[in-house]
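RETRY 2/3 - previous attempt timed out on the joint model. Re-submitting the same 312-residue input unchanged.
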Amino acid sequence: MAFPTETVYGLGADATDATALGRVFAAKARPSGHPLIVHLAFPDQLDRWSEDPSPAARRLAETFWPGPLTIVVPRRDTISPVATGGKPSVGLRVPDHPVALALLERTGRPIAAPSANRFGRVSPTTAADVAAEFLAVAAGPDLVLDGGPCRVGVESTIVEVLYGEPVLLRPGGIPAELIEEVLGCALRSATGPARASGMLSSHYAPRAEVSLVEPGNPAALAMAVAAALADGKRVAVLGLSSDLVGWRADLDPAALVLDTIDSTEQYARMLYRHLREADRADAEHIVALLPEPDGLGRAVRDRLRKAAAPRP
Ligand code: TXA
Ligand code: MG
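RETRY 2/3 succeeded.
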């Protein structure tokens, strides 16, 4: 079943049940090598579902769970290898959402759940978005639990704390700065082959093509909009209201402006909803004005960069 978390909606199955997990991969059309995040009801279940987690992993769990942080630790063999894509590690997190926690407590199971979208597409942040995502899919979820719109709006931060220095695999709902403060060291950024599907270059993609503009460059924004309109495209513009105010008037009135965004937190919360809204409005090109790269701005920039990457 699909269920709400504070980040995005997840498509869940018992993390010890290979058959149920197979259905999740099938519904999403997700390649089998891409591991799922396993959700737990309580922070002290870290020990039950991982093998000898490091002191750093414990510290992160104690500090940030429940919350939007996934900690990659050595796998216990009670977690199905289907959930972990055959990897020796497992990504664990305790979500901070009453419906998700009630589901986890009442079933008493670890629940593996990727975001409840088709592979490569925009993650859903409302129950209606989940339903729309699987409308045409025969093998979709049996049930969608409706917990209202997600509070954080972008996925959890993923940190690998296996051996040696901790690695940031995906920026997300907990700012990397806060994690570094708790660990007392810098997070290494992941390099090399994509280890998280969010690390593939094209991901989180709406139907419309996306182009990006750095903050503080109104001329570049107006030019990007004009160029797309000149190409005959229907254009939507996305950005912080405070960045758009003042030169909104300079934008071609033919462009749909999605600018009800007052803070970086709200940019994160509204990002996927705005991308879906642009698709519903039949926009063919989205010009996104990026936020500054701090706090949740890192996650927003990461998702927009992937939405803008060349499609396979
Ligand atoms: O906020 C979230 O994290 C949401 C909600 C539902 O919890 N879930 C989510 O799942 O974003 P998904 O499958 O869309 O992204 C999970 C990411 C994938 O990119 C996967 O490769 C990575 O986590 N991941 C999971 N286990 C891993 C592991 N053992 N090593 C490296 N990456 C892992
Ligand atoms: Mg996803």
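Residues 5, 7-8, 10, 34-37, 68, 70, 72, 84, 87, 89-91, 95, 113-115, 155-156, 158, 169, 195-198 surround threonylcarbamoyladenylate (ligand 1) (CB under 6 Å). Closing ticket.
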